[in-house]
Amino acid sequence: MGIGSQIPLTLLATPLWVLYGIGCGTIAMGCWVLAHECGHNAFHPNRRIEGVVGFLLHSALLVPYYSWARSHSVHHAHCNHLEQGETHVPPRASSGLGQITEQLKKTLNPTLFGIISLFNHLVIGWPLYLLFGATGGEDYGFPTSHFWTGHPFANGQRNLFPEAFRKLMVRSNIGCLAMLIFLIIAAMHSSALRVMCVYGLPYLVINLWLTTYTWLQHTDQNIPHFSNTTWCWAMGALQTIDRPYGPVLNLLHHGIGSTHVCHHVNSAIPHYNAWRGTALLRQRFPELVLYDATPIREALWRIATKCGGAVHENPQDKAYYY
Questions:
Q1: Are 84 and 78 in contact (CB under 8 A)?
Q2: Which of the two residues, 230 and 157, has the higher pLDDT score?
Q3: Taking CA 204 as the corner, what is the angle to CA 167 and CA 6, rounded to the nearest 5 degrees?
Q4: What is the pLDDT of residues 176-215, one digit of tens each?
Q5: Residue 244 in contact with residue 217, Cβ under 8 Å?
Q6: Cβ contacts of residue 187 below 8 Å, gap of 6+?
Q7: Which residue in 174, 192, 175 sits closest to 183, CA to CA?
Q8: Model pTM greater than 0.90?
Q9: Is the CB of residue 130 less than 8 Å from the CB of residue 63?
Q10: Buried (b) or exposed (e) across 224-258, using 16+ Cβ within 10 A?
Q11: What is the Cα–Cα distance from 131 to 127, expressed in whole angstroms?
């Protein structure tokens, strides 16, 4: 971020700001992944050290650490479960939201629909998820929030955040609030525009990487989603896709997108051992470990255009597919 303080706030410097945002945000995504490992108790054997590192890293990225760790554990416990799953849970074609999205998909041409789907997921998807629970499971109702457990955020069949969790949620909120205060003070000493460029641009890029990884890890035309009647943990966990992100991104982001099947089989494995775990899984169970060699940009566009609507039940296996 020191480089960002030297770039002039002029229109002519726009290309430099774009390069700065992409470079800084891409590198900082690695910090997100380390905080993610802390939330899984996969970072350090000392839980206090692990908690401090995860809390500081995620608070600096405006992520409510303990609240996210709770919802993310629900995601791992109920992966690809339509009722109890969490994050990137698609609507059924028979639901109200599903009918709206399917009608929108039919009305718009595929290119425009794909652009809207990319914007919804990669640009505004993460804030909408934290604030309102967008793409959360059916049983938790809508909206849910990572910042408050009371009305109107507790209207589902089950609570994503039980009342006993409120103290940890408040602690998470204090971390994010402290970061916001720091940014306000920085804006007072320099300028709001400078802070928006220095912090805001990398922040958008981090969120873009985060949603790209999670979206592509659990979504494609041949990936089933399950209801209460057909889901089991093993079936859900194995509907996870490893993809080829290349040596640079795998180094910067600790292989999060290329070893994700192993991560769902055992989320306590640290990233530096996930490569060996992935190799062993592919060797022992080659038919169960999903891998798609499609280049990331092509896979992203395919999923944005083909998987942005609702899922339909397959009468043969009773699972739901785009």
A1: yes
A2: 230
A3: 110
A4: 999 999 999 999 999 999 999 999 999 999 999 999 999 9
A5: no
A6: 194, 195
A7: 192
A8: yes
A9: yes
A10: bbbeeebbeeeebbbbbbbbebeeebbebbbbbbb
A11: 6
Residue 54 near residue 45 (C-beta atoms within 8 A) = no
- Token pair for 54: 């995860």
Q: What is the CA radius of gyration of the chain?
A: 20
Determine contact, residues 258/245, Cβ cutoff 8 Å.
yes
Tell me what the mean pLDDT of segment 231-260 comes to. Answer: 96
